[in-house]
Amino acid sequence: MNQTNKIDDSMNQTAFKMLVSEHYRGLYRFAFALTGKESEASDLTQQTFCIWAEKGHRLRDETKARAWLFTTLNREFLKGQRRLARFPEREFDDEHGGVPDLSPSVVRELDARLVVAALGRLDRMYRTPLALFYLEDHSYREIAEILAVPIGTIKSRIARGKERLGSSLKEQSASSVVRHG
């Protein structure tokens, strides 16, 4: 790295720090007003500054930085709301093993090949009970009998397997968006 690049990087870091210190509080308050939650407001504010770090250099008029930041924060919030509308978060009832009721129409809409491929990448300890439950429609009790494992263990493995499967599908979806987006 030559001396000019070092100076440019130092100036950029200083400018970024000044931008954050000048606008963080207002952006955070705006994000909190939108989300109503401290953690989400912090995440949204941080995301906005990350986007600035990537794209802010494109802004020609530095006097518009504040408007750009607030617009970006709002867009990120709306993008998150659209994502929640498509993939709503659900609270699961432990009494029923934490497994949501899936209607046949929802199941048909899933990309079965993608899910089965992700299921195949799971550790066998989680894959087997998940496959028996979702693909073969066995009850927890039947799975416990088939695998000769206590029903509590089956519930635990299905819950953990669902988490791992969900993470795998999210990663796969994110990499697909990057490739095709």
State the gist of this model.
The chain is mainly alpha-helical. Helix content is 77%, strand content 0%.
What would the keywords be for this entry?
181 residues; mainly alpha; Rna Polymerase Sigma Factor, Chain: A; 2 domains
Query: CATH homologous superfamily name of the largest domain?
Result: Winged helix-like DNA-binding domain superfamily/Winged helix DNA-binding domain
Please give the CATH class of the largest domain: Mainly Alpha
Please give the number of β-strands. 0
Q: Helical stretch count? A: 8
Distance between the termini: 32 Å
Please state the CA-atom Rg, rounded to the nearest Å. 23 Å
Order of secondary-structure elements: HHHHHHHH
Count of domain modules: 2
CATH architecture of the largest domain: Orthogonal Bundle
Helices and strands: which structural class?
A: mainly alpha
Oligomer: single chain
- The percent of residues in helical segments reads over 70%
Low-confidence stretches: none
How much of the sequence lies in strands comes to under 5%
Summarize the structure in words:
The chain folds into two domains: 3-86, RNA polymerase sigma factor, region 2, helix turn helix motif (Rna Polymerase Sigma Factor, Chain: A, Orthogonal Bundle), CATH 1.10.1740; 94-180, Orthogonal Bundle (Arc Repressor Mutant, subunit A), CATH 1.10.10.10. 77% of the residues lie in helices and 0% in strands. The chain has helices spanning 3-35, 38-55, 65-86, 104-109, 112-121, 124-135, 140-147, 151-180. The chain is elongated and about 70 Å long. The two termini are 32 Å apart.
